[in-house]
Amino acid sequence: MRPVDPGSRQPRSGWPCKPAQRTSIGYDFAVIRFEHVTRTYGAQVALDDVSLEVRQGELVVLTGPSGSGKTTLLRMIYAAERPDRGVVELGGRDVGRLRRRSIPLLRRNVGVVFQDFRLLGDRTALENVMVALEILGLPRRVVRERALLALDDLSLSTRAEVLARALSGGEQQRVALARALVGRPAILLCDEPTGNLDADAGAVVLAEIARAHERGATTLLATHDPAALRLAAERGFRRVTLRAGRLEADEVSRPALVMSPQRRERLP
Q1: In this predicted model, what pLDDT tens digit does every residue of 214-237 receive, in sequence order?
Q2: If we measure between CA atoms, which residue out of 189, 136, 129, 133 comes closest to residue 153?
Q3: Mean pLDDT over all residues of the chain?
Q4: 112, 177 in Cβ contact below 8 A?
Q5: Confidence class of residue 213 from pLDDT cuts 50, 70 and 90?
Q6: What is the pLDDT of residues 76-95, one digit of tens each?
Q7: Domains in the chain, start-ordered, CATH in brackets?
Q8: Averaged over 152-178, what is the pLDDT?
Q9: pLDDT at position 235, please?
């Protein structure tokens, strides 16, 4: 399945939502919605009465100190966590009310990039990317072709047959990003994707995330990385700040939240 093209004003096939309507600053359909969401772990409050909407095609940078709730917020979007109170909606569906057997279908629409990569160390880079397509039941030839293209997009074609554990940290994160993007998700979630990388490797990963958003993926990027924060400030994307589980700020540097397919800025 392919992600929504914001210019089409239509939801992706099988995506349970109304068509998005163009406004002066983007599209009015909230593909992700948190309504008074609270999540606790014993006495620790991870999210405290958080309400947030992310519109189709936006790029939102999540910031805040460690333990502020960024990872918990992302995990709720792909149903790895459920709220104690409140509602989390994805594409108009209440994620907290989904049956267990429906969760894999929901996750086909979501690509996730983790800070710790989560690759299979005894599999090659190519095999790690192919896994994301094999679960969709695609023909083996198609799976291999798409996975190779995804690696090539990230300048990893010469490393395709190398075991994941033998790759550098930067290479492993690029493989993880290729795995997240190869299924052409409508939504891309990135949890500190440059946290374990040097500046050069981090720049490559950020550039590819920016290109994925430019192609139409609604993107949430949780980060402490100054380079990612500069990207948010320079390109006019939203910056949402969490602190102690509460939504502290929601800012944008200029009203250009969603890039038009007819006139898109060139990203780094």
Answers
A1: 888 999 999 988 887 887 677 667
A2: 129
A3: 83
A4: no
A5: confident
A6: 999 999 999 999 999 889 99
A7: 27-109+186-255 (3.40.50.300), 123-184 (no CATH)
A8: 94
A9: 65
Question: Taking CA 238 as the corner, what is the angle to CA 237 and CA 240, rounded to the nearest 5 degrees?
Answer: 150
In one-letter notation, the amino acid at residue 73 is: L
